[in-house]
Design goal:
Layout lengths: L4 E4 L1 H4 L14 H10 L4 E3 L7 H11 L5 E6 L9 H16 L4 E6 L4 H4 L2 H12 L3 E7 L3 H9 L5 E5 L19 E5 L13 H4 L3 H17 L4 H11 L3 E7 L3 H10 L6 H12 L11
Parallel strand pairs: 1-2, 1-8, 2-3, 3-4, 4-5, 5-6, 6-7, 7-8
Helix pairs in contact: 3-4, 4-6, 10-11
Length: 290
């Protein structure tokens, strides 16, 4: 059962997001039914993801089974008293649209350290949790300073961080720490660039450097008789501090393959080599630099 997988829903509301597969894409109900059959119990969404919250709600309206839902709040400003009402309105809207009783995790969808550390925002998040509107509080981070604050501020329970076989530089900072937070890996396929490479040269400024790393990964996959999905999922699943991973797809074939690959066992030598490659800092590892 895919208990370590969370289905990301950005592609439900924004089908053109990332580097998409050319395989068949399913209607929302078909995809979510399949996810449940595969053992996926949690969805990751956001008001920013087009109509994804509404689509989840429509599924819940007609299905006898339901997901746990994690959503986000954004549009916040530092040192702004109205942040409290903004957060409460956003959370209430997400709960209503997705047709759940409460959010599994409420994330800040802004990684600005001024937002993550704002006293009004932190106090409001604490009250949202106390009021039972969210079981846990989280942040989605992009750099080490944000990670460090989220680990130590005492408010956030869950930290989403980019982790992939291509780039796990931020995650690598956790190796020497005792971590009492739930670490969730996102961008494990780096928005699909691991598999769909035809547009890299046109869309990514550092394409040449990225392609060199991709070729290293390809060579290791061939040497160890593994496919790229096995390497990508197996690597992230083996990382000591990662509890779960977010995957985003609307393709039933891809989702089944990802669930299978999440159980991949990598040899210690292969894992070490992948970690050496992945832990190196890369400018293109952050999609904001594309």
């Amino acid at each position: 059962m895919a208990t370590n997988i969370i289905l990301g829903t950005v592609k439900l509301g924004e089908p053109g997001y990332g580097f998409s597969s050319n395989k068949r894409h399913a209607a929302t109900a078909e995809l979510l039914d399949q996810a449940l059959e595969l053992g996926i119990k949690t969805l990751d969404t956001s008001p920013r993801y087009g109509k994804s919250e509404q689509l989840i709600g429509e599924f819940h309206k007609h299905s006898p089974r339901a997901f746990k839902v994690c959503s986000k709040v954004d549009g916040l400003l530092p040192n702004e008293k109205s942040s409290s009402s903004t957060i409460y309105r956003s959370v209430a809207a997400s709960i209503s649209k997705t047709r759940v009783d409460k959010l599994e995790v409420l994330y800040l969808h802004q990684n600005d350290l001024r937002i993550l550390s704002d006293e009004v925002i932190l106090e409001t998040l604490h009250r949202v949790k106390e009021d039972g509107m969210a079981m846990s509080l989280g942040v989605s981070i992009y750099d080490y300073k944000e990670l460090e604050f989220a680990l130590n501020c005492g408010v956030y329970d869950v930290i989403q961080t980019p982790v992939s076989v291509l780039d796990s530089h931020i995650y690598s900072k956790l190796d020497c720490k005792v971590v009492d937070k739930e670490i969730i890996a996102r961008s494990i396929f780096l928005q699909g660039t691991l598999f769909n490479r035809q547009d890299i040269s046109e869309k990514i400024a550092q394409a040449d450097d990225m392609v060199l790393t991709l070729r290293e990964i390809d060579a290791l996959a061939k040497e160890h008789d593994k496919n790229l999905v096995d390497l990508a999922c197996g690597y992230v699943a083996k990382l000591a501090h990662v509890k779960r991973m977010i995957v985003g797809t609307t393709c039933p074939q891809n989702l089944s393959e990802i669930v299978r690959a999440s159980e991949t066992v990598l040899s210690q030598s292969l894992f070490r080599r992948l970690k050496e490659i992945s832990s190196q800092h890369k400018e293109w590892g952050n999609p904001r630099n594309w």
